[in-house]
């Protein structure tokens, strides 16, 4: 927990350094996107490398597949409409 708090404090201190923030924000946005993709890949890798999890996929059934598919679709739709209608334009 301490490294997380230290990184947060370092980020806040860095933002007050007077450097141009736009370049850092653009980089931060791209890094966050790639970070999420790496995490999703690693979760898929860990599930795929677990033989017990792979054997239980057949027992989970279509209902779990449908629930997870609709959850992902709902999240994507909410994110799309949230960005489209809730985003405030910068002056």
Automatic annotation (TrEMBL):
Pfam families given in the database record: Lys_export
Regions crossing the membrane: 33-50, 62-81
Keywords: Membrane, Transmembrane, Transmembrane helix
Highest rank taxon of the organism: Bacteria
The keyword Transmembrane is assigned to this record: yes
Keyword flag Transmembrane: yes
Protein name: LysO family transporter
